[in-house]
Design a protein that fits this description.
The structure is a single chain. The chain is mostly helical. It has one domain. Helix content is 92%, strand content 0%. It is rod-shaped, with a radius of gyration of 34 Å. The chain starts with a helix and ends in a 5-residue tail after the last helix.
């Protein structure tokens, strides 16, 4: 009886360890997927920030242009506001 009990305990311990390893591997795979998704999202956000930064620079140049009185005069002449 003692030998059978020991064999059952060893088998139960082995099954427990294998199940634990399977669960840990599944968690690791899930974490890798999450990391890849976050990395992709981070790159998308960096690209979007660069795009908005470029647009902001363009609009700042446009604002500087229209703040100049000569540019306003040329614009008024272009649209026949001033004849």
């Amino acid at each position: 009886m003692n030998q059978q009990k020991r064999n059952r305990l060893v088998a139960a311990g082995t099954v427990t360890v294998v199940l634990l390893l399977v669960v840990l591997v599944a968690i690791m795979i899930y974490q890798l997927v999450v990391i890849v998704q976050l990395s992709n999202r981070r790159q998308e956000l960096i690209d979007e920030i660069e795009k908005y930064s470029t647009e902001m620079d363009n609009y700042e140049d446009l604002i500087d242009y229209y703040e100049d009185y000569d540019a306003l005069y040329q614009l008024a002449v272009k649209y026949d506001i001033i004849g």
